[in-house]
Amino acid sequence: MWDDLGVYLREVNGPEMANKSISELVALDPVSTSRFIDNKFKAMLDFIMSSDEPLGKVTHYFWRRVYQSRGAQHFHLMLCVKNAPILHESLLDVVASFISKYVTCAIPDKNVSPTLYQRVTSYQTHKHNKYCMRQKKTRRGFVKVCRFGFPRPVTEILTIRDIIESIATRTTLSPNSRLYYIVRKKECVMINYYNPAILLAWNGNTDIQYVCEKTAILNYYVIKYTTKSEKTHVADMFQDINHKLIRDINSTKPLRSRLFNIGLRVLSNRESAALWKPVTFTWYFTLYGTDPTTTIRWLDVNIFRNRRVKSKSDMMMLDWTPAIVIYYESWIDDHYPKRPKELENTNLYSFAQNYDIVKTRPVSSKVKYYEINDGKKFLKRRANPYLINHYFYDGEQVPEKYFFSLLLLFKLVERRA
């Protein structure tokens, strides 16, 4: 139903495709289709982060590209909105007002907003199918219940339920498992949540939800799609290849040819029936991403840590005395112990999260910095903190390494001059 996609595919494939439908063009040219969807999604991110603020002032985001079994791709996107209210920390009226500002399920007037009306009725209207209907045991026997909670209850005011009750009923297919229900009329019981500006820009199904609780459910939701395993028979395929290599140990085929055949077999053993996944892996379309301001810093929390040896050119400039240091400086062993006196009460985690070392003095008067190494370098405070990443040890399997890593990150170490 994307007319702009049809125009693009006809343009790149020549006049002989003029009479083809969009579905036929997608099947004939999945590469260009994937490129188009990728560019459109990036444009959507630019719109969400723009000064128009269709979903509020977004400070950070994380997205994940996922494929349905038939090969069509969709996106999961988590947004962090500045000053968004949090349940039990803000008044219920403030939370309800925030949700109502950005999410709705109303069917617009056909005469006033014909385009929005068409997209709501086409994309946001839920229709039961075998995928969503589940068998549920009741006192009267087994009944079929929609796993997405449709039809949704009619309500004249936005209602917010208790967090614990909501979480407890999420696995029971209860019709009241959602944390909140926005204002909904009788004719809108099958309409999914949406944002009018996002729906008009994307021109496809959207499911806008506000996460207003601080629970592990949110982290699980994000991690689940980041580390989602792929249904494939690659493991069995590699076992067959291993047996074949053993049989053909004296094969005259070059190694490059064998590796190429392995790659072809990996792509052909994917579950997807369409060419979308092979296209994505071949053209290196990113499967997940974050906003440009989100940067990660790795900290080595091992008891015995690796050190980077200085380059040959730096070695030639050293004064080879007994106190010579052939390693580059590190955050844990050098910069943090020699931190400025003003940061004496700062732990390693906060120190590495909020500061950078630069060779030039910051020009802006708004930037906070400290002179280090006798004024040769400067410790500059970052406007956007790093996300600290480090190895997580199992406290039961390796308790010594587990507790050492925690003490290293959060116990104050005496400052060295």
Number of helices: 15
Strand content: 5-15%
User: CA-to-CA gap between the ends?
Assistant: 67 Å
Reading side by side through the largest sheet, how are the strands ordered?
Answer: 2-1-7
Outline the low-pLDDT stretches: none
User: What level of helicity do the residues show?
Assistant: 25-40%
Mean of pLDDT: 85
Assign an overall shape: globular
Helix and strand content put the structural class at alpha+beta
Radius of gyration: 28 Å
Please indicate the count of domains. 4
H and E string:
HHHEEHHEEEHEHHHHHEEHHHEEEEH
Counted beta strands:
12
Tell me about the largest β-sheet.
3 strands, antiparallel
Give an overview in words.
With 417 residues, the chain is α+β, with helices and mostly antiparallel strands. It folds into four domains: 1-86 and 214-232 and 273-291, no CATH class; 87-195, no CATH class; 234-269; 296-410, no CATH class. The protein has helices at 3-13, 22-28, 30-48, 92-102, 114-123, 163-168, 196-202, 216-226, 234-247, 255-268, 276-283, 312-316, 331-335, 348-354, 399-410, and strands spanning 58-67, 73-81, 133-138, 141-146, 159-160, 180-181, 288-290, 296-298, 355-358, 369-372, 377-381, 387-389. A three-stranded antiparallel beta sheet has the order 2-1-7, covered by helices on one side. The chain has a three-stranded antiparallel beta sheet with strand order 9-11-10. It is globular, with a radius of gyration of 28 Å. The model has no long low-confidence stretch (mean pLDDT 85).
